[in-house]
Write a structure and sequence with these properties.
This protein has 370 residues and is of the alpha/beta class. It has helices at 44-59, 79-92, 106-118, 132-138, 176-193, 195-203, 205-209, 213-233, 248-257, 265-282, 288-300, 313-322, 350-359, and strands at 2-6, 13-18, 38-42, 65-69, 100-104, 125-129, 143-148, 151-158, 163-167, 307-308, 333-338, 341-345, 361-362. The chain has two domains: 2-173, Rossmann fold (3-Layer(aba) Sandwich), CATH 3.40.50.1970; 179-367, Up-down Bundle (Dehydroquinate synthase-like, alpha domain). Strands 1-2-9-6-5-3-4 form a seven-stranded mixed beta sheet, with helices on both faces. It binds nicotinamide-adenine-dinucleotide (NAD) and zinc ion.
Amino acid sequence: MDFVRVELADRSYTIYISSGLMGEIGDFLTPFNLTSKNMLITNPTVYGLYGQRLLNSIHSKDIHCKCLIIPDGETYKDYFWAYHILSEMLKEGLDRKSCLFALGGGVIGDITGFCASIYMRGIPFIQIPTTLLAQVDSSVGGKTGVNHPLGKNMIGSFYQPMAVFIDTNTLNTLPNREFLAGMAEVIKYGVIWDDELFQYLDTYKDEIFTLAPARISHIIRRCCEIKAEIVGKDEKEQNIRAILNFGHTIAHALETETNYEVFKHGEAVAIGMVAEANIAKILGITDDVTVKKITDLIFAYGLPTYIPMSLNKDSLIHHMQKDKKSLVGRITIITPKRIGEVKVTKDVDIQHIKPSLNLLEVRDEKDIGD
Ligand SMILES: NC(=O)c1ccc[n+]([C@@H]2O[C@H](COP(=O)([O-])OP(=O)(O)OC[C@H]3O[C@@H](n4cnc5c(N)ncnc54)[C@H](O)[C@@H]3O)[C@@H](O)[C@H]2O)c1
Ligand SMILES: [Zn+2]
Protein backbone atom coordinates (compact mmCIF):
# COMPACT_ATOMS: atom_id res chain seq x y z
CA MET A 1 0.00 0.00 0.00
CA ASP A 2 1.23 3.49 -0.88
CA PHE A 3 0.06 6.59 0.93
CA VAL A 4 0.23 10.13 -0.43
CA ARG A 5 -0.74 13.03 1.80
CA VAL A 6 -2.35 16.17 0.43
CA GLU A 7 -1.42 18.88 2.93
CA LEU A 8 -4.06 21.58 3.09
CA ALA A 9 -4.29 22.55 6.77
CA ASP A 10 -7.64 21.36 8.15
CA ARG A 11 -8.61 20.04 4.71
CA SER A 12 -5.65 17.65 4.46
CA TYR A 13 -6.30 14.07 3.38
CA THR A 14 -4.66 10.81 2.40
CA ILE A 15 -4.63 9.07 -0.96
CA TYR A 16 -4.48 5.28 -0.46
CA ILE A 17 -3.04 3.38 -3.45
CA SER A 18 -3.00 -0.40 -3.71
CA SER A 19 -3.98 -3.26 -6.00
CA GLY A 20 -7.16 -5.02 -4.90
CA LEU A 21 -8.11 -2.22 -2.51
CA MET A 22 -11.78 -2.15 -3.60
CA GLY A 23 -12.87 -5.00 -1.33
CA GLU A 24 -10.97 -3.58 1.64
CA ILE A 25 -12.05 0.05 1.63
CA GLY A 26 -14.43 -0.57 4.54
CA ASP A 27 -11.43 -1.40 6.74
CA PHE A 28 -10.08 2.11 6.29
CA LEU A 29 -13.29 3.96 7.11
CA THR A 30 -13.31 3.62 10.91
CA PRO A 31 -11.41 6.89 11.57
CA PHE A 32 -14.04 8.81 9.59
CA ASN A 33 -16.77 7.84 12.01
CA LEU A 34 -19.51 7.49 9.39
CA THR A 35 -22.51 7.11 11.64
CA SER A 36 -25.19 8.77 9.49
CA LYS A 37 -26.82 7.69 6.23
CA ASN A 38 -24.36 7.74 3.34
CA MET A 39 -24.65 7.39 -0.43
CA LEU A 40 -22.56 5.88 -3.18
CA ILE A 41 -22.84 7.55 -6.60
CA THR A 42 -21.76 5.58 -9.66
CA ASN A 43 -22.83 4.63 -13.18
CA PRO A 44 -24.09 1.28 -14.57
CA THR A 45 -20.74 0.38 -16.17
CA VAL A 46 -18.67 0.84 -13.03
CA TYR A 47 -21.41 -0.47 -10.75
CA GLY A 48 -21.49 -3.70 -12.76
CA LEU A 49 -17.75 -4.14 -12.33
CA TYR A 50 -17.06 -2.92 -8.80
CA GLY A 51 -20.24 -1.62 -7.14
CA GLN A 52 -21.18 -4.70 -5.18
CA ARG A 53 -17.64 -5.38 -3.99
CA LEU A 54 -17.36 -1.85 -2.63
CA LEU A 55 -20.82 -1.88 -1.04
CA ASN A 56 -20.12 -5.25 0.62
CA SER A 57 -16.92 -3.85 2.07
CA ILE A 58 -18.66 -0.72 3.38
CA HIS A 59 -21.66 -2.66 4.74
CA SER A 60 -19.39 -5.20 6.44
CA LYS A 61 -18.41 -2.40 8.81
CA ASP A 62 -22.07 -1.68 9.58
CA ILE A 63 -21.90 1.60 7.72
CA HIS A 64 -25.22 2.59 6.18
CA CYS A 65 -24.78 3.28 2.46
CA LYS A 66 -27.37 3.53 -0.31
CA CYS A 67 -26.38 3.32 -3.95
CA LEU A 68 -27.50 5.77 -6.62
CA ILE A 69 -26.75 4.99 -10.25
CA ILE A 70 -26.77 7.76 -12.85
CA PRO A 71 -26.29 7.19 -16.60
CA ASP A 72 -22.76 6.79 -17.98
CA GLY A 73 -21.32 9.69 -19.96
CA GLU A 74 -20.06 13.25 -19.97
CA THR A 75 -23.47 14.50 -21.16
CA TYR A 76 -24.91 13.57 -17.76
CA LYS A 77 -22.38 15.72 -15.89
CA ASP A 78 -24.83 18.58 -15.84
CA TYR A 79 -27.03 20.62 -13.56
CA PHE A 80 -30.06 18.42 -14.13
CA TRP A 81 -28.31 15.28 -12.90
CA ALA A 82 -26.70 17.14 -10.01
CA TYR A 83 -30.20 18.26 -9.02
CA HIS A 84 -31.40 14.65 -9.32
CA ILE A 85 -28.61 13.46 -7.01
CA LEU A 86 -29.39 16.23 -4.49
CA SER A 87 -33.09 15.30 -4.58
CA GLU A 88 -32.30 11.64 -3.89
CA MET A 89 -30.03 12.68 -1.02
CA LEU A 90 -32.86 14.69 0.50
CA LYS A 91 -35.37 11.87 0.01
CA GLU A 92 -32.99 9.43 1.71
CA GLY A 93 -32.61 11.83 4.63
CA LEU A 94 -28.87 12.45 4.33
CA ASP A 95 -27.74 15.00 6.89
CA ARG A 96 -24.70 17.20 7.58
CA LYS A 97 -22.65 14.23 8.79
CA SER A 98 -23.47 12.06 5.78
CA CYS A 99 -20.77 11.13 3.30
CA LEU A 100 -20.92 10.70 -0.48
CA PHE A 101 -18.77 8.06 -2.16
CA ALA A 102 -17.84 8.72 -5.81
CA LEU A 103 -17.11 5.43 -7.61
CA GLY A 104 -16.07 5.93 -11.24
CA GLY A 105 -14.08 8.14 -13.58
CA GLY A 106 -13.77 11.90 -13.62
CA VAL A 107 -17.41 12.42 -14.58
CA ILE A 108 -18.71 10.69 -11.45
CA GLY A 109 -16.00 12.27 -9.28
CA ASP A 110 -16.74 15.80 -10.49
CA ILE A 111 -20.54 15.68 -10.15
CA THR A 112 -20.44 13.84 -6.81
CA GLY A 113 -17.91 16.26 -5.36
CA PHE A 114 -20.03 19.16 -6.56
CA CYS A 115 -23.17 17.77 -4.90
CA ALA A 116 -21.23 17.14 -1.68
CA SER A 117 -19.99 20.72 -1.74
CA ILE A 118 -23.44 22.31 -1.92
CA TYR A 119 -25.66 19.84 -0.01
CA MET A 120 -26.47 21.47 3.33
CA ARG A 121 -23.53 23.84 2.67
CA GLY A 122 -21.09 21.00 2.32
CA ILE A 123 -20.83 17.40 3.52
CA PRO A 124 -17.86 14.97 3.39
CA PHE A 125 -17.10 12.94 0.30
CA ILE A 126 -14.69 10.18 -0.66
CA GLN A 127 -13.23 9.58 -4.11
CA ILE A 128 -12.78 6.05 -5.46
CA PRO A 129 -11.47 6.77 -8.97
CA THR A 130 -11.52 3.92 -11.49
CA THR A 131 -9.99 5.47 -14.65
CA LEU A 132 -6.32 6.34 -15.02
CA LEU A 133 -7.26 9.97 -15.66
CA ALA A 134 -9.27 10.13 -12.46
CA GLN A 135 -6.56 8.34 -10.45
CA VAL A 136 -3.73 10.65 -11.49
CA ASP A 137 -5.65 13.86 -11.94
CA SER A 138 -9.32 14.57 -11.36
CA SER A 139 -9.83 12.82 -7.99
CA VAL A 140 -6.99 14.78 -6.38
CA GLY A 141 -7.00 18.50 -5.79
CA GLY A 142 -10.62 19.34 -5.12
CA LYS A 143 -11.93 20.78 -8.37
CA THR A 144 -15.56 19.73 -8.67
CA GLY A 145 -18.28 20.75 -11.07
CA VAL A 146 -20.73 20.18 -13.87
CA ASN A 147 -21.01 21.38 -17.45
CA HIS A 148 -23.35 24.05 -18.81
CA PRO A 149 -24.47 24.30 -22.46
CA LEU A 150 -22.40 27.50 -22.63
CA GLY A 151 -19.22 25.89 -21.36
CA LYS A 152 -17.57 22.86 -19.82
CA ASN A 153 -17.00 22.78 -16.05
CA MET A 154 -18.49 26.27 -15.80
CA ILE A 155 -20.48 25.55 -12.64
CA GLY A 156 -18.37 24.24 -9.79
CA SER A 157 -16.41 24.67 -6.62
CA PHE A 158 -13.10 23.96 -4.95
CA TYR A 159 -13.97 21.25 -2.45
CA GLN A 160 -11.54 18.66 -1.13
CA PRO A 161 -12.47 15.03 -0.54
CA MET A 162 -12.01 13.40 2.87
CA ALA A 163 -9.94 10.59 1.34
CA VAL A 164 -9.09 9.05 -2.03
CA PHE A 165 -8.91 5.26 -2.48
CA ILE A 166 -7.19 4.03 -5.64
CA ASP A 167 -7.45 0.35 -6.55
CA THR A 168 -4.94 0.02 -9.39
CA ASN A 169 -6.55 -3.28 -10.48
CA THR A 170 -9.51 -1.32 -11.83
CA LEU A 171 -7.32 -0.39 -14.80
CA ASN A 172 -7.48 -4.01 -15.96
CA THR A 173 -11.06 -3.50 -17.16
CA LEU A 174 -10.56 0.01 -18.55
CA PRO A 175 -10.80 0.25 -22.37
CA ASN A 176 -7.34 0.76 -23.87
CA ARG A 177 -8.25 4.10 -25.43
CA GLU A 178 -9.27 5.43 -22.00
CA PHE A 179 -6.02 4.16 -20.51
CA LEU A 180 -3.91 5.88 -23.16
CA ALA A 181 -5.87 9.11 -22.77
CA GLY A 182 -4.96 9.00 -19.07
CA MET A 183 -1.33 8.46 -20.03
CA ALA A 184 -1.34 11.90 -21.69
CA GLU A 185 -1.86 13.47 -18.24
CA VAL A 186 0.88 11.22 -16.83
CA ILE A 187 3.31 12.44 -19.51
CA LYS A 188 2.23 15.99 -18.64
CA TYR A 189 3.48 15.55 -15.04
CA GLY A 190 6.84 14.44 -16.40
CA VAL A 191 7.17 17.51 -18.61
CA ILE A 192 6.04 20.08 -16.05
CA TRP A 193 7.75 18.70 -12.94
CA ASP A 194 9.81 15.56 -13.09
CA ASP A 195 12.31 14.57 -15.76
CA GLU A 196 12.92 11.26 -13.95
CA LEU A 197 9.26 10.34 -14.36
CA PHE A 198 9.48 11.34 -18.03
CA GLN A 199 12.50 9.07 -18.46
CA TYR A 200 10.73 6.26 -16.56
CA LEU A 201 7.79 6.45 -18.98
CA ASP A 202 10.18 6.08 -21.87
CA THR A 203 12.26 3.27 -20.35
CA TYR A 204 9.33 1.13 -19.14
CA LYS A 205 6.86 1.78 -21.97
CA ASP A 206 6.36 -1.87 -22.81
CA GLU A 207 5.66 -2.88 -19.23
CA ILE A 208 3.35 0.08 -18.72
CA PHE A 209 1.41 -0.95 -21.84
CA THR A 210 0.85 -4.39 -20.34
CA LEU A 211 -0.16 -2.83 -17.00
CA ALA A 212 2.73 -4.39 -15.04
CA PRO A 213 1.53 -3.74 -11.45
CA ALA A 214 4.81 -2.34 -10.10
CA ARG A 215 5.14 0.14 -12.99
CA ILE A 216 1.52 1.23 -12.78
CA SER A 217 1.67 1.75 -9.00
CA HIS A 218 4.84 3.77 -9.40
CA ILE A 219 3.43 6.15 -11.97
CA ILE A 220 0.13 6.63 -10.14
CA ARG A 221 1.89 7.32 -6.86
CA ARG A 222 4.35 9.74 -8.47
CA CYS A 223 1.59 11.66 -10.27
CA CYS A 224 -0.45 11.91 -7.05
CA GLU A 225 2.64 13.16 -5.20
CA ILE A 226 3.26 15.83 -7.82
CA LYS A 227 -0.35 16.95 -7.91
CA ALA A 228 -0.48 16.95 -4.09
CA GLU A 229 2.65 19.09 -3.94
CA ILE A 230 1.37 21.61 -6.46
CA VAL A 231 -2.13 21.80 -4.95
CA GLY A 232 -0.58 22.08 -1.47
CA LYS A 233 1.24 25.21 -2.63
CA ASP A 234 -1.68 26.77 -4.52
CA GLU A 235 -5.08 25.20 -3.87
CA LYS A 236 -7.19 27.73 -5.79
CA GLU A 237 -4.99 28.24 -8.85
CA GLN A 238 -3.75 31.72 -8.04
CA ASN A 239 -0.29 30.95 -9.40
CA ILE A 240 1.71 27.72 -9.66
CA ARG A 241 -1.30 25.37 -10.02
CA ALA A 242 -1.72 26.84 -13.50
CA ILE A 243 1.20 24.74 -14.73
CA LEU A 244 -1.09 21.70 -14.53
CA ASN A 245 -2.77 23.25 -17.57
CA PHE A 246 0.18 22.46 -19.83
CA GLY A 247 -1.32 21.38 -23.16
CA HIS A 248 -4.78 22.42 -22.01
CA THR A 249 -5.13 25.85 -23.64
CA ILE A 250 -5.08 24.20 -27.03
CA ALA A 251 -6.79 21.01 -25.80
CA HIS A 252 -9.86 22.94 -24.62
CA ALA A 253 -10.05 24.76 -27.95
CA LEU A 254 -9.87 21.44 -29.82
CA GLU A 255 -12.57 19.92 -27.61
CA THR A 256 -14.89 22.90 -28.01
CA GLU A 257 -14.37 23.11 -31.77
CA THR A 258 -15.16 19.41 -32.21
CA ASN A 259 -18.09 19.48 -29.78
CA TYR A 260 -16.37 16.98 -27.47
CA GLU A 261 -17.17 14.28 -30.02
CA VAL A 262 -13.83 13.58 -31.68
CA PHE A 263 -11.21 13.48 -28.98
CA LYS A 264 -11.02 12.02 -25.50
CA HIS A 265 -9.80 14.76 -23.17
CA GLY A 266 -6.36 13.14 -22.87
CA GLU A 267 -6.04 12.90 -26.65
CA ALA A 268 -6.73 16.61 -26.99
CA VAL A 269 -4.17 17.25 -24.24
CA ALA A 270 -1.63 15.14 -26.17
CA ILE A 271 -2.01 17.34 -29.27
CA GLY A 272 -2.08 20.43 -27.07
CA MET A 273 1.23 19.51 -25.43
CA VAL A 274 2.94 19.08 -28.80
CA ALA A 275 1.51 22.39 -30.04
CA GLU A 276 2.41 24.28 -26.86
CA ALA A 277 5.94 22.84 -26.90
CA ASN A 278 6.23 24.17 -30.46
CA ILE A 279 4.99 27.58 -29.33
CA ALA A 280 7.70 27.52 -26.64
CA LYS A 281 10.23 26.90 -29.37
CA ILE A 282 8.87 29.71 -31.53
CA LEU A 283 9.12 32.02 -28.50
CA GLY A 284 12.72 30.95 -27.89
CA ILE A 285 11.84 29.37 -24.51
CA THR A 286 12.87 25.85 -25.46
CA ASP A 287 14.87 24.01 -28.09
CA ASP A 288 14.30 21.40 -30.80
CA VAL A 289 15.56 18.57 -28.64
CA THR A 290 12.95 19.17 -25.93
CA VAL A 291 10.13 19.47 -28.46
CA LYS A 292 11.23 16.25 -30.10
CA LYS A 293 11.44 14.38 -26.79
CA ILE A 294 7.90 15.45 -25.86
CA THR A 295 6.49 14.64 -29.30
CA ASP A 296 8.24 11.26 -29.47
CA LEU A 297 7.00 10.09 -26.07
CA ILE A 298 3.42 11.13 -26.80
CA PHE A 299 3.62 9.32 -30.14
CA ALA A 300 5.12 6.23 -28.48
CA TYR A 301 2.03 6.00 -26.27
CA GLY A 302 -0.18 5.83 -29.34
CA LEU A 303 -1.57 9.30 -28.75
CA PRO A 304 -2.32 11.83 -31.50
CA THR A 305 0.22 14.58 -32.15
CA TYR A 306 -1.53 16.29 -35.05
CA ILE A 307 -4.52 18.54 -35.68
CA PRO A 308 -7.01 17.39 -38.35
CA MET A 309 -6.74 19.57 -41.44
CA SER A 310 -10.48 20.17 -41.44
CA LEU A 311 -10.32 22.17 -38.22
CA ASN A 312 -10.39 25.91 -38.65
CA LYS A 313 -7.32 27.47 -37.01
CA ASP A 314 -8.96 30.87 -36.56
CA SER A 315 -11.84 29.40 -34.70
CA LEU A 316 -9.44 27.41 -32.48
CA ILE A 317 -7.76 30.69 -31.57
CA HIS A 318 -11.14 32.28 -30.97
CA HIS A 319 -11.96 29.51 -28.46
CA MET A 320 -8.62 30.06 -26.72
CA GLN A 321 -9.42 33.73 -26.24
CA LYS A 322 -12.78 32.83 -24.70
CA ASP A 323 -11.40 30.14 -22.37
CA LYS A 324 -12.38 30.77 -18.74
CA LYS A 325 -8.73 30.71 -17.78
CA SER A 326 -7.69 33.44 -20.21
CA LEU A 327 -8.37 36.91 -18.87
CA VAL A 328 -10.18 39.18 -21.34
CA GLY A 329 -8.99 37.61 -24.54
CA ARG A 330 -5.36 37.22 -23.57
CA ILE A 331 -3.96 33.80 -24.22
CA THR A 332 -1.85 32.12 -21.55
CA ILE A 333 0.28 29.15 -22.55
CA ILE A 334 2.27 26.87 -20.27
CA THR A 335 5.55 26.69 -22.09
CA PRO A 336 8.17 24.01 -21.38
CA LYS A 337 11.74 25.21 -20.88
CA ARG A 338 13.19 21.73 -20.63
CA ILE A 339 11.82 18.35 -19.49
CA GLY A 340 10.76 18.85 -15.87
CA GLU A 341 10.43 22.63 -15.97
CA VAL A 342 7.80 24.93 -17.49
CA LYS A 343 6.93 28.58 -17.24
CA VAL A 344 3.62 30.38 -17.48
CA THR A 345 3.70 32.64 -20.52
CA LYS A 346 0.95 35.25 -20.49
CA ASP A 347 -0.25 37.42 -23.35
CA VAL A 348 1.04 35.15 -26.09
CA ASP A 349 0.72 36.80 -29.47
CA ILE A 350 -1.65 35.03 -31.88
CA GLN A 351 1.10 35.35 -34.51
CA HIS A 352 3.10 32.83 -32.50
CA ILE A 353 0.25 30.41 -31.98
CA LYS A 354 -0.99 30.06 -35.53
CA PRO A 355 2.23 28.76 -37.08
CA SER A 356 2.48 26.05 -34.44
CA LEU A 357 -1.07 24.91 -35.26
CA ASN A 358 -0.34 24.79 -38.97
CA LEU A 359 2.83 22.89 -38.23
CA LEU A 360 0.79 20.14 -36.63
CA GLU A 361 -1.73 19.74 -39.40
CA VAL A 362 -2.24 16.24 -40.76
CA ARG A 363 -4.00 15.39 -43.96
CA ASP A 364 -5.05 11.82 -43.26
CA GLU A 365 -7.91 12.26 -40.84
CA LYS A 366 -8.35 8.54 -40.43
CA ASP A 367 -5.40 8.69 -38.02
CA ILE A 368 -7.24 10.95 -35.65
CA GLY A 369 -9.54 10.18 -32.81
CA ASP A 370 -10.39 6.53 -33.27
N1 LIG B 1 -11.74 17.78 -11.32
C1 LIG B 1 -10.64 17.82 -12.02
O1 LIG B 1 -9.60 18.32 -11.56
C2 LIG B 1 -10.62 17.23 -13.38
C3 LIG B 1 -9.41 17.05 -14.06
C4 LIG B 1 -9.43 16.42 -15.30
C5 LIG B 1 -10.64 15.99 -15.84
N2 LIG B 1 -11.80 16.19 -15.15
C6 LIG B 1 -13.08 15.73 -15.70
O2 LIG B 1 -13.05 14.31 -15.77
C7 LIG B 1 -13.96 13.88 -16.77
C8 LIG B 1 -13.32 12.80 -17.59
O3 LIG B 1 -13.01 11.72 -16.74
P1 LIG B 1 -12.67 10.27 -17.32
O4 LIG B 1 -11.68 10.39 -18.40
O5 LIG B 1 -12.36 9.43 -16.15
O6 LIG B 1 -14.02 9.84 -18.05
P2 LIG B 1 -15.33 9.08 -17.54
O7 LIG B 1 -15.61 9.34 -16.13
O8 LIG B 1 -16.39 9.37 -18.54
O9 LIG B 1 -14.91 7.55 -17.71
C9 LIG B 1 -14.62 7.05 -18.99
C10 LIG B 1 -15.41 5.76 -19.29
O10 LIG B 1 -14.80 4.67 -18.62
C11 LIG B 1 -15.79 3.95 -17.87
N3 LIG B 1 -15.06 3.38 -16.75
C12 LIG B 1 -14.64 4.00 -15.63
N4 LIG B 1 -13.87 3.17 -14.90
C13 LIG B 1 -13.83 2.01 -15.56
C14 LIG B 1 -13.18 0.77 -15.32
N5 LIG B 1 -12.37 0.60 -14.27
N6 LIG B 1 -13.35 -0.24 -16.21
C15 LIG B 1 -14.12 -0.06 -17.30
N7 LIG B 1 -14.74 1.10 -17.61
C16 LIG B 1 -14.58 2.12 -16.74
C17 LIG B 1 -16.81 4.99 -17.53
O11 LIG B 1 -18.05 4.39 -17.21
C18 LIG B 1 -16.85 5.80 -18.82
O12 LIG B 1 -17.65 5.15 -19.77
C19 LIG B 1 -14.34 15.12 -17.56
O13 LIG B 1 -15.64 15.48 -17.21
C20 LIG B 1 -13.35 16.17 -17.09
O14 LIG B 1 -13.88 17.48 -17.13
C21 LIG B 1 -11.80 16.80 -13.95
ZN1 LIG C 1 -6.66 17.45 -18.22
